[in-house]
Amino acid sequence: MNLSEYQIKTVQRALNFLNFRDDAGNKLAVDGIWGPKSKEAAKKYIKATGISLSTDNAVNIFSGTKLAVMNVQAALVYSKFLSGPDAVNGDANPDTIAALKKFQAKHNLSPDGICEPLTRKAIMSYSPEPKSI
User: What is the pLDDT of residues 32-57, one digit of tens each?
Assistant: First the structure.
């Protein structure tokens, strides 16, 4: 694929967020380099989804994950783990990852900042404690 550094970083963040790893099970470095580890994770994505990646569709496919990230960010804002005027922006940025780790730690989940199925279920079904009146 012939992607820009920014586009590759977008794909790498999305693969990490979706829990696709290299062959050793490691999270990808978000470095903008389309190296062997990024290619391994992309192959796993293709195998799991049946959707092939090309220069034309890679960023469009992973831009679709922006909605998923925004849903998680909105849930983190609702649950008071994330705040700020640009908190819900669809970018799995350091603030989002830190908020997700705090949520995971508080809910006895592995605080790794990865929104895997158990975390996704917990955060999407979260209700804050009712306040006394």
Answer: 998 999 888 888 888 877 776 665 55
Alpha helices in the chain (DSSP H): 5-17, 36-49, 58-63, 65-78, 94-106, 117-124
User: Quick one: 90 exposed, middle or buried, by C-beta within 10 A (0-12, 13-18, 19+)?
Assistant: middle
- Return the ∠ at Cα 47 (arms to 43 and 49), rounded to 5°: 115
The rounded distance, in Å, linking the Cα atoms of 39 and 55 is 13
Q: Tokens 């975390």, residue?
A: 119
Under DSSP, is residue 18 helix (H, G, I), strand (E, B) or coil? Answer: coil
Q: What are the sequence ranges of the domains in the chain? A: 5-63, 65-124
pTM of the model: 0.55
**CATH code for the structural domain at 65-124:** 1.10.101
